[in-house]
Design brief:
The chain is α+β, with helices and mostly antiparallel strands and 154 residues long. The chain is 46% helix and 21% strand. It folds into two domains: 33 residues; 104 residues.
Length: 154
Amino acid sequence: MKCPFCDELEDKVVDSRMAKEGEVIRRRRECLGCKRRYTTYERVEEILPMVVKKDGRRESFDRTKILAGLKKACEKRPISTATIEDVTDRIEKRIQEMGETEIESRIVGEELMKELHQLDQVAYVRFASVYREFKDIDQFMDELKTLAQQRRER
């Protein structure tokens, strides 16, 4: 593992622990060059589907894109990084459980929308405005009215 501080390739593992209910191993490492410590996480490489984009391009499923989208939608909201990680894990797990070799990007987006709808309404509207590509204020207001109606029905 390359040291993030000095790029040395030699290190030693100081501590290993299970994390995320045994799905991840957290390792504390010490660089043999600069003696600084850093943390790495290891997880089983899972077979995830190719994502088919709107224009027909295909790319590998990338959980960091989901994480980035969630972080952007939740920016300046009272939502912890741990919660965002948990949401990302749930979405990734549901997609993997579908067992498909290819999945439309629309399905990934809808999974994100479902999670954000339950998590935080402001983050949901932020994400929806980009994801659904609102063309004008009327489309935006329609989404807000639907959200308000659902809230009243609860």
